[in-house]
Write a structure and sequence with these properties.
Two copies of one chain form a homodimer. By secondary structure, chain A is an alpha+beta fold. Helix content of chain A is about 40%, strand content about 20%. In chain A, the strands form two sheets. A six-stranded antiparallel sheet of chain A has the order 3-8-4-5-6-7. The first copy, chain A, is globular, with a radius of gyration of 19 Å. At the A-B interface, α4, α5 and α6 of A face α4, α5 and α6 of B. The structure holds manganese (II) ion (4 copies). The site of one manganese (II) ion has 6 residues of chain B, from α4. The first copy, chain A, binds a DNA duplex through α3.
DNA sequence: CTAAATTTTTAGACAAGACTAAAAATTAAT
DNA sequence: ATTAATTTTTAGTCTTGTCTAAAAATTTAG
């Protein structure tokens, strides 16, 4: 149906979109490690296929068709990540690269069977929601740790940055999804936190606190 | 390492090679549904990469490096086929197309873990051997059914043609790998056989008998 | 052994996707 | 409101892999 390149652009636009009206050419180029001129070419192609609206010099936004397509790719990506962790003993910092390849395999039956085989998981190994066949997914109430105050308690349920280095940092601190966390102290000067994790106290920088999603008790 | 296109050419040459010294341009083009001119271009590229020897106007043969590469692709293809049948309830006539895509996924860990997950199978769903990481595989003693004489008995252990239509024919006749078969009669006129399968007698044409591998008792 | 048929290669073109350099449009700064 | 800086697009090139048509080599037939 769509080339791997087209799928990667669709995914990039989807992830950059957020609340924004239009995603700029440069933002897309930055995320995809390509040049702006390549993006312009592709945006025209996606617009021709009715996958994106393209406003020259302003940027692009996915159409409903494009959003559905993005959700199907993300569904595949996240289901494969669960598969790799649950069935093949991959760690959560190893799955992304392989899922980047597997997400482009074309077979409706394959992905539906993987879903069933895994027991219809709702979250991937990084806490991100898995869309269903129609692009719908559960929205969970969650708060970024850096919004919490002394005394707040909760559970780690997701990450903003899921880069390999961050995942390895979390492993080193024995923090994983489901880990209970309590805010012991907050330092105004550098915006760092002291938190209690697994019964021990831990200092985390602002950067760390900005990338952890907590579900409050 | 190698592009998907290169991998597909390598696989085609490998399968056409057999005992032959050289595989011709046209044979490759025929198997891959491309034109001879495209094959010529690719053979030069494979020769440059030391994956094949190319003798202009004569044909090509894989180098040791090319053979190893072919075996690794075939290993992946067949392991994925086993996975689809054993873990995801695919039937043996549905797996090939999906495996054609999955065989190009690049991840040593992925394929080794799949292998382990499946219990290191030695045969794929069509009875074909699965090479190990080094390209070695078990050779089984087997006879084409059309070589058998009245009274011979054995077990169906492999297929020459594994096309969807042939697999569906076998399903219809309740024949699968491991099915016991006995030669009841042979008709000289049209070279057809009467065989006993699952306690019942069945007429099979020469074409059928030419595509079944039997292990004699 | 020569002529015809077949196979293979070459030459030139095209599509997808990427890049560089230059031009045009937009945005920011005086 | 101009000018300067930034962003985006256009124009032209490259690579990979494909194709058609024509030329060259090989094989088959008479
Ligand atoms: Mn991922
Ligand atoms: Mn993920
Ligand atoms: Mn197959
Ligand atoms: Mn097979």
């Amino acid at each position: 149906m769509h080339s791997i390149s087209e799928e990667n652009y669709i995914k990039a636009i989807y992830h950059l979109q957020g609340g924004k009206a239009l995603v700029s050419t440069n933002e897309i180029a930055g995320r995809m490690n390509t040049k702006a001129s390549s993006v312009t070419d592709m945006l025209k192609k996606l617009a021709d296929k009715n996958l994106a609206e393209y406003v020259p010099y302003k940027g692009a936004r996915l159409t409903d068709k494009g959003v559905l397509c993005a959700n199907q790719i993300i569904r595949k990506h996240r289901l494969w990540e669960v598969f790799l962790v649950e069935k093949l003993d991959f760690s959560w910092d190893e799955v992304h690269e392989v899922a980047e390849q597997l997400e482009h395999i074309q077979s409706q039956k394959l992905i539906d069977q993987i879903d069933k085989h895994l027991g219809f998981p709702k979250k991937d190994p990084h806490g991100d929601p898995i869309p269903d066949r129609h692009g719908n997914y559960e929205k969970t109430n969650k708060t970024v740790l850096s919004k919490l105050k002394k005394g707040d308690k909760g559970t780690l349920i997701g990450l903003i940055d899921s880069s390999k280095n961050f995942l390895k940092y979390l492993d080193k601190q024995h923090m994983k999804l489901g880990t209970h966390i309590e805010i012991v102290d907050f330092e105004e000067f550098d915006l760092s936190y002291t938190i209690k994790v697994n019964g021990a106290e831990l200092q985390i920088s602002k950067l760390i606190s900005d990338n952890l999603y907590i579900k409050l008790n």
